[in-house]
Each structure stands twice: as structure tokens, then as C-alpha cells.
């Protein structure tokens, strides 16, 4: 493994997202790894990432992971599809001594396991869609898969504003997914749809109504948590302590807003007073 | 005026916004001041500002204006309601030798001129609404005014995605404005509504349908341009050149996306190749 010093097994897993969306992954990590300490960093000062360029996302992600690395950390989870699509390899190169896992590969794997007719849809932010990370990851596992991708940037705002259910939300979702469903008609029906943004599970009820019950919805949260657990087991990094893991939260802006919006995504109550404000923008990134 | 050197009258007016919304103000400036050179800076690397904290917005605005100030600039227009609400005074203190104008005072003035029964609604981003800048500015002009404010953060995403018209947009607008309209019923009807975010004029047709034709919609664009013109006249800063003014565009991220989305807001075609990418995040701000 090439580590220069013994690993601190009680150290936390650092979980990074552009804002609150990664809390859907944090839920799954809590469930899969209840004894692990978790420290979550939301880069709320620069959210959203999904409409920003690759260079900006790589730089922001590097600064965020640098801030997490300065804490007691034994592994990093990039709980943001856009950052995983654009910055995972770069971050793995920056921290070769740490497991650094993203959400795209686990999401692609879940889709390939779920699909019956190998016709997979992917909805994501504009940046993730343009980057084609899901398409590449799915084709890497299942070269014969047919894939249709659709950017749905509006879903991020809907999810953050708490617009998750109801007829109007379904109409908005239907309008956004129209090109995807039209393609599905002409090229044969999709059977699986990847929710390729951590915000989107909040809208899964509305999305399911629009695409129909025959389409299996897949998100990365549970499979990412499984992948993290498998990696900790294989690298003998599990926390030997049997007590419930500690949770801590860092944000780069607005702890009160974070705590309020977080309740749309996270299963446990977050108290704004316990959310620490950190400044990461001064961290030098290798990318200018 | 206390300027240490003669003013360069052919210098540009620097226009700053968090992203593309300020282009609605740029349209009005082009119309009111056709011979002035204008340089527009959109902080697309950190857009939106409307859900961010006062300290972050002040810091971002200071960095942006510093970047504009490094060019040939004779005046600054803060063409963003959130930045005007939170950072105008700070920026005026940073650059006492330059006219630095925001959009809130002109918007408040326009509302006070338009209102018949002194019952004014304000819709804006979450940050502008919480900051109460419009409320204070309106009450400063018209102390007896009754004001109702409502945050409509979702409108920013709608405007940027090009969702401006149609039945579905009207339904979304109606849902967002429901608390405002309900208050309007119980406290007597609003007669004037301030579009307190530079993105919102893109949705004005839908907003007008929802609030009804008896409500006058007011935005800051035209009144801000008039205020800028009056200030240039009074300070003898008008460009003596009679040729059409030059336009230039700076962004902190994604020139291609900027040029594409800009077409939803700006009356002239913007070519991505002519949009300059600048890095302002390294600029030291006085606020940490």
C-alpha cells in the first residue's frame, strides 16, 4: 500500500460534495458503515458545480479535498457526480496514499446490474452529461449497452427548494425528460434510468411517475456505500471501535442555510450550530 | 471630486453581475448611453449569489470590482441585486474616487414613482429578501409604504434554462407567488411589484399573467441606466466620442456557456470567442 506510517483506523471518512446533494450518499454510508466516523464537506460557497467548467470543478474539488485531508482522514468519497466525472482521477493522483472513491463507477455498475435489455438512460447535470463520464463507465462494463443521456440542471434547484412531489413537479419533470422519452420511443424503450446527480433521488417519486414503473431507477448512493465498505475491508481500514460513528459537517458558506436545506436530503437532524464554516478558497490548487 | 489625475473620459463603464442576469441592465445602458464603452464582468465561477451569505457576496464582489478596476474604468455599475444589497456600500468605500452605482436604489425609486396606493411587493433572491435592502430603500423614499417581500430563488434557474413563457412556467410562478398573493388578499391588493433580481425580467410575461394586469411590474434596468447617465452628466464624465461604444465581456468561468445563456437576456449577439476568461479568485479581498 506504500503508506509511510500506520493508518489511524479511527480516523474519519471524508465525504465531499458541492453542497447538500451528497447527503443522499452520506445516508447510505451511515447505513452501510454505522461505526465509521464521517466528516462531510459541502462547498456551498461555490455551489452548484453542474453548470461550471471542468477546470473550475477540478480546482474547487482539489481545494475541498485538501481541507478534508488536513483533518484526521483515512479515505475520501467524492459524493458529487459532477466532481466525480471531472476530478476523480486528478484527486486520486493528488492523494495516492488514500482510497479516493467517486460515485460514477458505482452508479454505472448498479445500472449494468439492473438493466434487462441493455438500454440505459442517464440524467445528470449539464457538466456531467457533457463530460460523458457515465457513458464511458457503462460502456466499460457493458460495451453493447445503448445509452441515452439528458441534462436536467433544473432538477437541482427543484430539489434544493423542496419541490419534490405533486402534480406540478411531475409536469416539470415530464417537460425536462421529453427529449429522453422521445428518444426512448424511437430507439426502443429504456429499461433503466440512472439518477446521475446526488440531488435527483429527492425527485425519484416524480421521475418514476413520468418514466413509468417498467423503468428501474438507479442511484449511486447505496452502491457507492457498498464500494466504500468493500474497499475499507480489503485494505483493512475498518474502524475497530463498535460505538456509533461520529458525524461532523463543514461548509464553505451559510451554515444556517445548509442545515435548513439539508433536511430535504439527510435522514438525521442537522443543527446549524454544529456546522463548521471553513475557508478553502485560499488553498492553492495545482490547477490555475 | 478629489481625483488625483484627469479622468479618462473614453474609459469604459464597468458593469458587474454574478452571471448573465446583469445583461438586462446592460441592455438598458446600451440604450441610454450608446456612445459609452462598456465592459461586463460575470462571475460565472461562483454564480449564483442569491443563496449565498453576505460575507461571501461581499468578498466575491470586491474581487470582481478589483478586476474591473484594473482595466480602463471611469465608473462601476453593480448590475446584480444581491451584490447591490450586500456589497454596494463596501464597494463605494473601496473606490471613493469612482462613481459606484447599484440597482436597488433605482429600483426602489421606480417602484415609488409607479405605486398608486403605496402597497408594493418585492420579489428577489433569498439573500436580497433576507437583507431587506429593497424594504429599507423604499421606506427611505416613502416611509408610509406597505411592503411585502417574497424570495423566489427558483426563478433564477428557470430564467437561465430559457423557461420564460407558457402555461407550465405560469403555474410555477403562481406557486412561488402564492404566499405573496395571499398576503395581498388579506392586507389589500398590491399595486406594484418590484422584480428585484436581474434574472426576473425574462419571466415578466408569466409574472404579469399571475399577478394580474392591475399590478405594475417594475425592474431596475431602465432606472439604473438613467441614474448612471445622470451621474456621468453631473460629474462631466460622458464620453465625448460620438462613435458607437465598444462592448467587451469578461467571465470567470465557461465563456461558451455564458455566450449561449446570454442570448436569453441580451439583445445583441455575443460570440463566445470574444468572451475573455479571467481569474479573479486570487485577488485579495479585505474581507476574509
UniProtKB/TrEMBL annotation, chains A, B:
The active site is at 80 (proton donor/acceptor), 197 (proton donor/acceptor). Gene3D superfamilies: 3.40.50.1860. Its EC number is 5.1.1.3. It comes from Marinobacterium sediminicola. This is Glutamate racemase. It catalyses: L-glutamate = D-glutamate. Provides the (R)-glutamate required for cell wall biosynthesis. InterPro entries: Asp/Glu/hydantoin_racemase, Asp/Glu_race, Asp/Glu_racemase_AS_1, Asp/Glu_racemase_AS_2, Glu_race. It is an enzyme of class 5 (isomerase). It comes from the Bacteria.
Amino acid at each position: 500500500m506504500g503508506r509511510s506510517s500506520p493508518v489511524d483506523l479511527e480516523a474519519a471518512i471524508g465525504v465531499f460534495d458541492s453542497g447538500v446533494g451528497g447527503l443522499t450518499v452520506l445516508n447510505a454510508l451511515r447505513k452501510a458503515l454505522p461505526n465509521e466516523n464521517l466528516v462531510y464537506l459541502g462547498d456551498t460557497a461555490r455551489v452548484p458545480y453542474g453548470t461550471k467548467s471542468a477546470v473550475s470543478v477540478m480546482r474547487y474539488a482539489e481545494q475541498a479535498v485538501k481541507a478534508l485531508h488536513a483533518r484526521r482522514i483515512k479515505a475520501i468519497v467524492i459524493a458529487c457526480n459532477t466532481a466525480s466525472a471531472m476530478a476523480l482521477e486528478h484527486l486520486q493522483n493528488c492523494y495516492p496514499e488514500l482510497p479516493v472513491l467517486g460515485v460514477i463507477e458505482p452508479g454505472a455498475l448498479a445500472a449494468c446490474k439492473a438493466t434487462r435489455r441493455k438500454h440505459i438512460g442517464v440524467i445528470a447535470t449539464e457538466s456531467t452529461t457533457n463530460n460523458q463520464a457515465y457513458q464511458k463507465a457503462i460502456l466499460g462494463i457493458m460495451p453493447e449497452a445503448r445509452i441515452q443521456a439528458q441534462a436536467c440542471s433544473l432538477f437541482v434547484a427543484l430539489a434544493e427548494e423542496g419541490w419534490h412531489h405533486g402534480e406540478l413537479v411531475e409536469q416539470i419533470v415530464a417537460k425536462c425528460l421529453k427529449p429522453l422519452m422521445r428518444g426512448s420511443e424511437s430507439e426502443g424503450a429504456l429499461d433503466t434510468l440512472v439518477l446521475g446527480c446526488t440531488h435527483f433521488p429527492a425527485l425519484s417519486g416524480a421521475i418514476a411517475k413520468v418514466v413509468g414503473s417498467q423503468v428501474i431507477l438507479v442511484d449511486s448512493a447505496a452502491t457507492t456505500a457498498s464500494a466504500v465498505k468493500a474497499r475499507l475491508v480489503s485494505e483493512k481500514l475498518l474502524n475497530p471501535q463498535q460505538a456509533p460513528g461520529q458525524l461532523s459537517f463543514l461548509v464553505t458558506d451559510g451554515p444556517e442555510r445548509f442545515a435548513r436545506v439539508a433536511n430535504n436530503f439527510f435522514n438525521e437532524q442537522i443543527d446549524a450550530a454544529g456546522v463548521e464554516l471553513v475557508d478553502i478558497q485560499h488553498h492553492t490548487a495545482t490547477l490555475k
